[in-house]
Design a protein that fits this description.
With about 80 residues, this protein is an all-beta fold. The protein contains no helices and five strands. Helices cover about 0% and strands about 30% of the residues. The chain has a three-stranded mixed beta sheet with strand order 2-3-5, with no helix packed on it. A two-stranded antiparallel ribbon has the order 1-4.
Length: about 80
């Protein structure tokens, strides 16, 4: 599996696989005190079935997920 964020607004810093899960580290948002509240990267190939991702540094205290906001993913075939 190949991860890429070398495009405008891409913010993936590192991807590592341990057993059956991918652990992802994002670049911190600009002009923040070190948090990230969005992500943007691509994954190839797209037809690998169900995959498990853990974004390690995603979020900050008191933000949108605590109010029920969810993650949006776009899958292209």
């Amino acid at each position: 599996m190949v991860f890429d964020s070398r495009f405008e607004c891409g913010n993936l810093s590192l991807a590592s696989k341990i057993e059956n899960q991918f652990f992802l580290l994002l670049h911190n948002d600009v002009n923040t005190s070190g948090y990230t509240n969005w992500f943007y990267f691509s994954v190839e190939p797209k037809k690998l079935g169900k995959q498990k991702f853990a974004i390690l540094n995603y979020g900050k205290a008191g933000w949108a997920f605590s109010n029920g906001t969810g993650i949006c993913c776009r899958v292209e075939n």
